[in-house]
Amino acid sequence: MSSAEASRPPRGTDGAREWWARVDRVGWRRFFLALLTLALALLMALYATALRESGHYVTGALTALFALGLAGVIAARIVPRLVRRTRLERWRVRIHYELTREGAVYLALIIVIGIAALNTGNNLLFIVLASLLAGILASGVLSRLVLEGLELKLTLPEHLFAERPVEARLTLVNLKRFSPSFSITVSGRVNKNRKGDPDGHIPPRILDQPVYVPYLPHRATVGQRVEIIFPRRGRYTQDGFRVSTKFPFGLLRKSREVLTRQEVIVFPGVEPIQDLLQFFPNLGSHVESPLKGHGHDLYAIRDYRETDAARHVDWKASAKAGNLKVREFTREDERRFTLVFNRLVPNISTLSPAQFENAVRLCACLAWHLYEIGAQMQFLTDNFSAAMSSSAEVIYPALERLALIEPAATNGPPFWAGRDHRLEGFRVIFTGQPRSSIVPGEWGAAQFVFFNELSSMAAKDSA
Known about the structure:
By secondary structure, the protein is α/β, with parallel strands linked by helices. It folds into 4 domains: 75 residues; 174 residues, Sandwich (Immunoglobulin-like); 42 residues, no CATH class; 128 residues, no CATH class. It has 11 helices and 18 strands.
């Protein structure tokens, strides 16, 4: 079940003071001035009519001209200013109507009763017909009132991963002073192609499932929890939301669009891959056998020496052994890794989308594994470079780059060849180039992962 939280603004004196601060006093003064002037013009017109009927034609004509002049001044000077100060947002709202199944039955009933009333001339049938038509009118007025004065906001976690459910929060605000809203359904607005989208590609929308809010009090805020699963990595956008209702009779579904631009980046899925080291057989010695030093991970427990600091004493081990024992820690600077993702391939047509996605996912999983063990990491692509640093500083920029990366064609050498890229530590290079393109001297300095050899990775992982 979803939860709703309502918060109301202050009432009483504070509410009245807040309302008075928002009142357009200049506009209201001009309105009452125009109203009094038009009333005076009406009285002058009536007086001119009386003068004409009593035989004072000249005086009646002058009085009528004076009344007409007053009305003209109001129309030329005050009315345009009032129009410019009028809030026209509520009249610009476009309401879309969709006939429901119940509404179709209701409309058919109106047609039948209308034909019967015309044929028989029965006053009772005309009264029933008028009541049915009044129901449609009341439905339109009430539903428009329900859809007015609503604001929406969708709040998502800071970091999103593909194929992993996340809990978002949809906040719905009712700005109306007096009337609540009933039976509201919020759904994602279909994105439209905009200038700047590469190759006319329309990013998928964020909110695909409808969210139902049964009741929203006036001047209140309701928060609805929504579980969202992004099926794949990449950029997701939301151009707006569609708010609809069938209140009060369910004859028509009325909807309006609330425009609000939102964009998120979804990282590749980083679910643990079984037997990760089977893809990186040379990685184990660098991860599982670090040297001792001044890091944070435990390396060994040994006997106490006079030069050891007291803060390294392991009191539990000392109690068991009967003499002082101290802890030795791993040396963090030995866990240095460089991940290189080469998206440039000689022929894109020979690379299947599944192979490329598997390579992206495996690289993301390896980067996340290095982040979890606290290693030093460097990440490189042809258009992005993150220098060797703590994996906590590199992981999210690297995942964001992997979320948006796409293959590109090239016949040249690897992008890191002949450049100022300094590849430090243990290197893992993901590439779509064939094995024959790798220089023999590079095999001992790095481990290569070829895209075309990862087609069965998903099957192995699921097994």
